[in-house]
Structures are given as C-alpha cells and as structure tokens.
Specification:
OB fold (Dihydrolipoamide Acetyltransferase, E2P); alpha+beta; about 550 residues; 9 helices; about 20% helix; about 40% strand
C-alpha cells in the first residue's frame, strides 16, 4: 500500500514538472483573490500569485474598476521575485492587447477610441485603451485651440496617422475625424444651397478682408467689398462676431466647396441712378474717404465714390501730394467731369469749382498794368515773379533791361527780391503771364524816335570823339557816326574836326528797334542836299558850277 502511494506521488510529481509553465514576457489569465493596501492580489495559476496596483485597473481620470473574483489578463514580467511572488502588470497586458487591436485598426484605416490625459511639448498624450499615443497640437482641431481643458479625459474617436510597435510610437489625429465629419456636413449643406439664394448666417470670424459666416455647418466668406455699396475700411465697422446677418449666396465652388457671400446685393444699387443724380458739369458736396499718390476719392453719397485726379485738384499746386491739398473726412465741393457707368467710375474735379486764377488775373490786370511781386525763382531764361492768386509771371532775359544784355542784367537779381514789372501778355490756355521790367518807364527809344523816319534830318549833339568816328546823342538815345559817314569828301572825314558839345545835322539812314540804334550819316545828308539843289536849280551839264548852284540856294533860303 505504502509502495503504491509512493509510486502515485512520484507520478503526480513528474506530471506537475512536465506541465507547461507560462513564459516570462507573455500575457496570462488570472483571478483576483484579494484586494488589500491599494493592490489586487491575483492568482495566475501554476501556484503563482502576484500583486498589481489598483490604479492600473483605472481608465485615465476614472476610479479603479476591479473586484474580488474578477478574471483579468496580466503581463508576466518575472515568475518569482525576492518574496517568492510573480511580478505581474495589468498595464503592460493592456498595452499588448491594445497594440494588437490598434495594428488591426491601422491596417483597416478604422477609427479608434481614446482620451487625452496629458500635455507634452508640441501636443498631448492620448490613452488608446492601454497604449499611449502622441497627438500633435496641429491635429487637435481644424482651427488652433487655445484652451484644451474641456477636451481632457473625454472619450472620443481618433485617427491613427502613424505607428511603430518596435519603437512604441503612435501618432493620432482628432482633426482628421472632425474634417471628415465636417466635409460630410458641408457637402450636405452645400447640396441644399443655390447661387442667388438668400440665407441667414452667424458671423463667426472677422478679418481685414472680410468675415466668415456660418450657414449651419458650413462657412461662407463675406468679402469686405460685398458688405455695402459704400467703401468699408474694416468689416468691424458694420459687423460683430455672433451677429446674425442676412446674406446672398453669390458663388459656390463645387470643387473646393468654397462659398462667396454678399450683403450689398440685397440692397438697391446706387449706381443705377448716378447719371440722373449727378449730371456732367454739376457741382456737389462730398466727403474725402481715401487719399492716394494719384488723387483723392470723394463719396458723393453712400455707395457712390468718385476720383479727383491729382491733375484736377488745384490750378496752381502741380507737383504736390494730394494729402497736402485735402484731408480724409473733409467736406469738399467737386464738379462731375465724366461718368463711366460700365466701369462704375466717376471722374471729379476740385479746381473746377474755383475760378481759373489766370482768367481772374487777366481781368484784373490787363496788358500794361504795373505789378509788384517777389522773385520766386531764377532760371537761365529769366525771372519768375509771384503774383496775386498764387500764380507766377515770367520776366524773360530780353525784358530785363534796355541797355544791358539779359545775361548781365539777371546778375543784379536775387531770390526773394521784391520787384516791379509791367504785364505784357496773359495766355490763360497755356497758363502763362509775360512780364517786363525794362518797360516800367515806357519805351524811351520808341518815344525818342516816334516822329523820326528813315531819311529824316535831325540835329544831334557830339558826346565823344573816337578814332573810328564820333558818338552822338539824340533825345537821350546814343548813336555812333562812323568815320566814313562824317563827310562827303575823304579829306573831311576826320573825327578831330568835331568837338564834344557840337550840334550837327545828320540824315537818318536806319532805325533798328531791336538793337535800339539809329543809323546816322553827315555824308548822306550832304549828298541828299546836293541832289535836291541840282534838281531845283539846274543840271550838272548846264554850265553852272556847283558853287553857283549852292550859292543861289543859300541866298534863296536867306
């Protein structure tokens, strides 16, 4: 009997030794036999027990869910530790289980459920039912999320973007799920929209160029130029976030699912009545809305703006920035110059509402009027003088002096000098005013030679004796008689025959108003007198000598 018992015991021992014990590093099934000191004691069979912290049985943010008698899977890290217990882990078992499940989902491109439980550099950590994944910040939502607090611990679907079991890396996206559902929602909403349809929407976001309006799951762009017929500098002028607005669907792009919206299309177009309200050449008051390098925009009424080109801003300020002439929000009078209804453009004039200063000057300062002004500029061809009405007149070099060359006379003037001049011509079309300084005292030469004609005999006074002739003066005008013109006979053509102060009769041979000189000759006077005497008292072949003829003529005169 005893022998039999020993044999049975030996058989049972061999049998127990031959039984397969689980491999370390594998997942085994065990039973919770007790819970004490925050740990669950688990019998994994094979006469092995181990301990697992209760927190390993809890989902992120939840309380542990485990009771005595529960059967659970754990990861066997080591069959025996120093206390003779198995080293087991529920968390590692869940991870292995999760990886198997996640790899299948990744292969099938299926969604997985998880919860965000922590924040790390560049994003968040997500528990996918035992496996920890990385959620990049850019993949949290379709738009940047400032506060991710409400999303923490919330069970929600994710899309696996990338996974590497060997390295233990998983990258997931919440944004991909949202975009997919959003795309479905957009497609449904867009399918029910038609171009030209009027819908209600809520302003979600405002930018520099417009506003995004939620049409019930899909956003449309309301561009700033489609908000009102008038100029809108910034959308916030007429819209606020959260406001409900009535808009018209202008365009739907079926490929990109982009929707363009408009508000002004629901209002009457003010351009329909522009030609009637603002006829050509009519003057209206408007408000300056914008200033550019090339002109200023003036609002005639809400929705109707016209451009005052820089060339139509001032009669006198030619090369000045428009901002120096008008300012934003200023009320100004403008004239309608041109209307292009097709291009929705109105050309306006500012200077046309004021009189042309050249016309005013022409009326108030006829030719011959004396004016006084400051030398504004000196150029190589003359002086520019400031005149009433902020305009300039020009004194040409040739109008500076009777006696000096223009290049010499201009040296006597400086910028800022106040000078007097006479108006000689006003050309309103070319906006030119010609002035003369030398004409201030009248034309002395013209006055002096007014009654003198070519061939006239005049009396002059000798003012200087020179080797080449004599200088003489007539009514204040200087002239020069050359040696060859001093006498008919060569022997008498000597300047020294005359003295300063002598009065002599001369014949006028030429009147040059350009050089302001008289051509004078004693010789020509003598020849003319001889010819006249011969005609009156005989001919050269009558036998009478020249002396007899001249003697008779002298006696007659006496």
């Amino acid at each position: 009997m005893a022998n039999t018992t020993m044999e049975e015991f030996e058989a049972l021992l061999n049998e127990s030794l031959e039984m397969d014990t689980p491999d370390e590093g594998s997942v085994v099934r065990g039973k919770v036999i007790a819970i004490e000191a925050g740990q669950a004691i688990i019998d994994v069979g094979y006469k092995m027990e181990g301990r697992v912290d209760l927190k390993e049985f809890a989902e992120p943010g939840e309380t542990p869910n485990v009771s005595v008698g529960d059967e659970v899977e754990v990861y066997l890290r080591s069959a025996e530790n120093a206390r003779g217990e198995a080293v087991i882990s529920r968390e590692m078992a869940r991870r292995e289980e999760a990886w198997d499940r996640l790899e299948k989902a990744y292969a099938d491109d299926a969604r997985v459920e998880g919860a965000i439980f922590g924040r790390v550099k560049g994003g968040f950590t997500v528990d996918l039912g035992g496996a920890v994944a990385f959620l990049p910040g850019s993949q949290v939502d379709v738009r940047p999320v400032r506060d991710a607090g409400p999303l923490m611990g919330l069970k929600q679907p994710f899309q696996i973007l990338k996974m590497d079991r060997r390295r233990g890396n998983i990258v997931v996206s919440r944004r991909a799920i949202l975009e997919e559902s959003r795309a479905e929602q957009r497609a449904e909403v867009i399918a029910n929209l038609t171009e030209g349809q009027t819908v209600d929407g809520v302003v979600k976001n405002i930018t520099e160029y417009g506003a995004f309006v939620d049409l019930g799951g899909v956003d449309g762009l309301l561009h700033v130029t489609d908000m009102a017929w008038r100029r809108v500098n910034h959308p916030s002028e007429i819209l606020a976030i959260g406001e409900t607005v009535k808009v018209q669907v202008i365009k739907i792009n079926k490929d990109t699912h982009r929707i363009s919206l408009g508000m002004k299309q629901l209002q009457e177009d003010p351009w329909d009545l522009v030609a009637v309200k603002f006829p050509l050449s009519s003057v209206h008051q408007g408000r300056v809305t914008n200033i550019t390098d090339y002109g200023a925009f003036v609002e005639l009424e809400p929705g109707v703006e016209g451009l005052v080109h820089v060339s139509e801003m001032s009669w006198t300020k030619k090369n000045v920035h428009p901002g120096k002439i008008v300012s934003t929000s200023q009320e100004v009078d403008v004239m309608v110059l041109e209307i292009d209804a097709a291009k929705r453009r109105v050309s306006l004039g500012l200077k046309q509402t004021m009189r042309n200063p050249w016309e005013v000057f022409s009326e108030t300062h006829p030719e011959g009027t004396e004016v006084e002004g400051e030398v504004k500029n000196i150029t190589e061809f003359g002086l520019f003088i400031g005149l009433p009405g902020e305009i300039d007149g020009m004194v040409h070099l040739s109008d500076l002096s009777w006696d000096q060359r223009g290049e010499e006379a201009i040296q006597d003037y400086r910028k800022g000098d106040v000078v007097k001049a006479v108006v000689t011509e006003v050309d309103t079309d070319k906006e030119r005013i010609s002035l003369s300084i030398k004409a201030l005292g009248g034309d002395k030469f013209a006055d002096a030679v007014g009654g003198v004609k070519r061939g006239s005999i005049i009396t002059v006074e000798v003012t200087a004796i020179e080797e080449g002739g004599v200088e003489v003066e007539y009514e204040g005008m200087k002239s020069f008689i050359r040696r060859s013109d001093l006498a008919r006979d060569r022997a008498d053509q000597r300047p020294e025959r005359f003295s300063v102060g002598d009065k002599i009769d001369v014949r006028v041979t030429n009147i040059d108003s350009k050089t302001r000189r008289l051509g004078l000759s004693i010789k020509a006077r003598e020849i003319a007198e001889e010819k006249e005497a011969v005609e009156q008292y005989g001919s050269s072949d009558s036998g009478a000598s020249l002396g007899d003829i001249l003697g008779a003529a002298l006696k007659r005169d006496e």
